[in-house]
């Protein structure tokens, strides 16, 4: 039960961190963004590796230690068991966090009007991009996203 609670907490935290091109952070609103015209050369599916912020390890370690300590048996053995369970819980929590924050993405290779080429990796959004599509590259606060050009 405790592992389920830890997993749910890590999953909830992971859901808060989105790199979807359809989600704009509040701090990026009402800011001027640079826009460049381009054409899609190719699209490739990639996987963005999950993050390891330490939250999963911390939650897993605490849950494991509390679950392992249990209080039954000799006090010293219970403490050792609690420490071992804490280490195992931290490793499991770290793995759960990394898996929960992994996301499917696309790598978009584009050619700018001037002939330069750029590769941008972004989470899969609702738009379906294909080779030959006219797109715009929007840069705001150091973040870049690709979207179809307005008609």
Helix content: 25-40%
Q: Mean pLDDT, as a whole number?
A: 75
Strand order, main sheet: write it out: 3-2-1-4-5
Could you tell me the radius of gyration in angstroms? 22 Å
The percentage of residues in β strands lies in 25-35%
Number of domains: 2
Distance from first to last alpha carbon:
53 Å
Tell me about the largest β-sheet: 5 strands, antiparallel
Which segments are poorly predicted (pLDDT under 50) over 5 or more consecutive residues?
1-16
Count of alpha and pi helical runs: 3
Query: Which structural category fits the helices and strands?
Result: alpha+beta
Description:
- The chain is an alpha+beta fold and 151 residues long.
- The chain folds into two domains: 1-18 and 50-101, no CATH class; 32-49 and 103-151, Beta Barrel (OB fold (Dihydrolipoamide Acetyltransferase, E2P)), CATH 2.40.50.
- The chain is built from three helices and five strands.
- It has helices at residues 2-16, 55-69, 75-101, and strands spanning 34-48, 103-112, 117-123, 134-140, 143-148.
- It has a five-stranded antiparallel beta sheet with strand order 3-2-1-4-5, with no helix packed on it.
- A hairpin with a 2-residue loop joins strand 4 (134-140) and strand 5.
- Helix 1 (2-16) runs antiparallel to helix 2 (55-69), helix 1 (2-16) runs parallel beside helix 3 (75-101) and helix 2 (55-69) runs antiparallel to helix 3.
- The radius of gyration is 22 Å and the shape is elongated.
- The model is unreliable at 1-16 (pLDDT under 50).
- Residues 1-17 form the signal peptide.
């Amino acid at each position: 039960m405790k592992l389920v609670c830890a997993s749910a907490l890590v999953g909830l935290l992971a859901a808060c961190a989105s790199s979807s091109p359809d989600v704009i952070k509040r701090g990026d609103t009402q800011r001027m963004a640079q826009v460049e015209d381009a054409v899609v050369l190719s699209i490739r599916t990639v996987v963005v590796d999950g993050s390891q912020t330490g939250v999963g390890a911390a939650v897993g370690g605490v849950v494991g230690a509390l679950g392992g300590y249990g209080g039954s048996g000799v006090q010293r053995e219970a403490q050792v068991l609690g420490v071992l369970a804490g280490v195992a819980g931290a490793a499991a929590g770290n793995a759960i966090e990394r898996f929960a924050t992994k996301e499917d993405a696309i790598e978009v290779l584009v050619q700018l009007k001037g002939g330069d080429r750029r590769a941008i990796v972004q989470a899969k959004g609702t738009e379906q991009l294909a080779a030959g599509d006219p797109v715009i590259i929007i840069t705001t606060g150091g973040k870049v996203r690709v979207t179809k050009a307005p008609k």
